[in-house]
Amino acid sequence: MGVGLCVLAAPEIIVGAVIVAGVVVVGFALQEALDAYELLGDEPEVVIPAPETRPVPETKPAPQEPLPEKRPKPEPKGPDFPPVGPTEVSERERRPECKPRRVPPKGGNKLHNKCADGIKFNAYRGANALVNGKAFDALQVVAGVLWEVKTDNYDSYPLELQDIVVGKHVRDFLIERELARACGFDFRVGVRSAAHKKALEYAEPALENLIVVMDWC
Fold first, then answer.
1. DSSP code of 75?
2. How many CB atoms neighbour CB 145 within 10 A?
3. pLDDT tier at 95, thresholds 50, 70, 90
């Protein structure tokens, strides 16, 4: 046999070639390889199935707890004790016993009446102002101040009498101050002597700034 050389375009034909002792033998394998190559063109393409996708289960969001409602901060409270001094009260809001009434002055002491009438803006000159059961010597309506006047000649009294007078006046003035404040009025005291004023304030510090020396009488 002669030596035959066959060059095939498809690599699959080389598989059918058998090499024996340096001689390329092309037998029926060549024809079978050609037939097999033609058959390969007719086979359908193998379609690789796409990977199956499974839906991811949806996760429901956890319910959010409602935020606690913000409570308003309590406003800071003031002290428990009542305010010092009389409260402003209009004439219409006053109780019947707190509405000033004009009454005749007690006694016939001309000096006492002169000192009371000499108080500036006294609306009850020649009379007393009856408020809360007490006949006060003067009333300054606009300022809302009730007055009590003392015309004692304190400087001429002996020491024992001075102590007695001061003790009585302190008791009376504290009571009269509360009667006036209960009806929304302030309270003042008029005396004729600086020594009298000093003795009263020393005996009762609560009377400080309430006592006035009447330099007009």
1. P
2. 19
3. confident
Query: Is the CB of residue 33 less than 8 Å from the CB of residue 15?
Result: yes
Give residue-wise pLDDT tens across range 125-166: 999 999 999 999 999 999 999 999 999 999 999 999 999 999
Helix, strand, coil shares of the chain as percentages rounded to 5? Answer: 35, 15, 50
190: which strand partners? 149, 212
Residue with tokens 């003795």: 199
Cβ-Cβ contacts under 8 Å for 187 (sequence gap 6 or more): 145, 146, 147, 148, 173, 176, 177, 180, 181, 210
Q: Provide the pLDDT confidence category of residue 106 given band limits of 50, 70 and 90.
A: confident
**What CA–CA distances, in Å, run from 145 to 1, 97, 186?**
155, 16, 5
